[in-house]
Amino acid sequence: MIKTVISRSLIAALLLGGSGAAYSADLDNIIYGPSLPKTQPVEIGSGWYLRGDVGYNFDTSGSASSFLAWDFIAPPGTTAVPYSSSSFDSDVTWGLGAGYQFNNWLRGEALLTYMTGRFDGESFSTTVPCTSTGLLGEGCSTDGGADFTAYGVMANGYIDLGTYAGFTPYVGAGAGYTLVDYDNYIDTETCDLGACVGPPFASQVVVHQGEKDWRFTYALMAGVAYEFTRNLKIDVGYKYTNVDGGDMYLFDAASLADGASGVQGTDDGFDTHQIIASLRYSLW
Fold first, then answer.
1. CA 219 to chain centre
2. Cβ atoms of residues 153 and 176 within 8 Å
3. Separation of alpha carbons 189 and 283, rounded Å
């Protein structure tokens, strides 16, 4: 009886041992794959922003040196007549653009600008006779001007100088082109000193078709921005803009009929000094 019990116990132990060994062998055969890399969220498009500007031109300066006068007296031709005085004036500037913040220090943008202004000029000629057909000559004075519209396309770069309690000072510069589009130039011409040739006239209004052309432009900026929220900043700054000279107006109808052609008046360009307020909205 005892032998039987012992035999059965040995057989059970052997079976259990074999089963455990087999189980262990199965576990040893499990292949563990390498750990997968952890994924990190990527912020796509970070750095892009939109901006809108409104500015006040507190100082606008510029001039025109001279214009061409058509001499109706034979032989006909043009004579350069200097302006005795000339000036530019403008008030409000608008802007709309998009930019990219490369890092905490550097950003760039493309900006469209819009501005209106006016040119005024006076002259007194002593070079050619003053005629009743209506263009400047000896003893003939003129007082005229024209409104204009300026559309700018600028590429600007800025250096942000660090952020302190939410305020970020910056400096910047830009370059591009401005389309200066003149309305009709209208002047009042007066024959003075009794020096008229032909029937005398006291004064007459003469209309010249306005011209437009693209002009090289550069700008310098400085200011400070304040972050209201993560996506919204406002900045206030100073901006200096220089616009090259170009064409202003063509010859009047009487001069054209007598043989004149081409551009009669050009300006020397103008500068503006502005205070600009801007809103910048980050898209992400």
1. 9
2. yes
3. 56
Query: ∠ CA 150-151-154 to the nearest 5 degrees?
Result: 125
Question: Residue 116's beta-bridge partner residues?
Answer: 149
Q: Give pLDDT tens digits for 219-273.
A: 999 999 999 898 999 999 999 999 999 999 999 888 888 888 999 999 999 999 9
Alpha-carbon Rg for the chain in angstroms: 40
Backbone angles phi, psi at 19, to 5 degrees: -65, -40
Strand partners, 171: 159, 222
User: What is d(CA 119, CA 182) in angstroms, rounded to the nearest whole number?
Assistant: 9
Query: Roughly how many angstroms between the first and final C-alpha of the chain, as a whole number?
Result: 87
Backbone angles phi, psi at 6, to 5 degrees: -60, -40
At 58, list the tokens. 């507190």
pTM: 0.78
Cβ atoms of 183 and 211 within 8 Å: the answer is no
User: Identity (one letter) of the amino acid at 69?
Assistant: A
Distance between CA 123 and CA 251 in Å, rounded? 16
Rounded Cα distance between 147 and 31, Å, is 84
pLDDT recorded at residue 37: 56
CA distance 221 to 99: 16
Number of neighbouring beta carbons within 10 Å of residue 245? 17
Can you give the pLDDT at residue 36?
53
CA distance 213 to 218: 16
